[in-house]
Amino acid sequence: MTVTLSPLHIDCDFDSGNILVLDASNPAQVHLNIRPDTHSGHFQWFHFKVSGLTPGQVHRFSLDNAAESSYKNAWDGYNAVASYDQQTWFRVPSQFDGKALSFELKAEQDQVWFAYFEPYPRARHNQLIERARQIPGVTLLASGRSVQGRDIPLLRAGDGAASKRKLWIIAQQHPGEHMAEWFMEGVIDRLQANDNVIQQLLAKADLYLIPNMNPDGAFLGHLRTNFKGKDLNRAWQDASVELSPEVFFAQSQ
Q: Cα-Cα-Cα-Cα dihedral of 134, 138, 144, 147, to 10°?
């Protein structure tokens, strides 16, 4: 029996979304491109939603410009991630043929999200900051602004004594590195647990934490740059309010 697949709707107009649709006329084989960072040629991160899947049927997706991405060798041995609910993510078999990255899914539901890695949503970031502020000894020391005006909270764990070392931990200077903010959540979990190791550390040092240094890039689905196309990990020697206010803020603290 021949099954006629329904047309698919592909969307990336949401937090950290990134994809360009080339040809979705065949629901069994969809052709896509990863969109480059704004004002930059970097790209690798992707995140998109597919609606209209036919449960029980296999749908295939091809990222046709994967070989032109910033780190094409990173596709070797890589498997994309997918989720039906944006809570539980799982790997899907993927293949890189030297040109395109392809992956497929035997649909269990009528919609699914695909991503480069499990995203760290802005809503969860906001909840993380509020949870951190409730931990004894953790304060919101300052809050900067990105190019597009998003908050950049700076947390301090410790009392700010002049005799202490200052340890800075900064995540997502490269916005496509969402796993870095998952790490920051782990740091805050440890601060909340307040175990012996944390107590010994805070007796000698204060922790200065920026859980998301590049909120614009993260929201826009960038790989490496902020809204101005600036790689913040390369901006520390020439930070400016105009091009890299995120780094300028950190340096001013």
A: -70
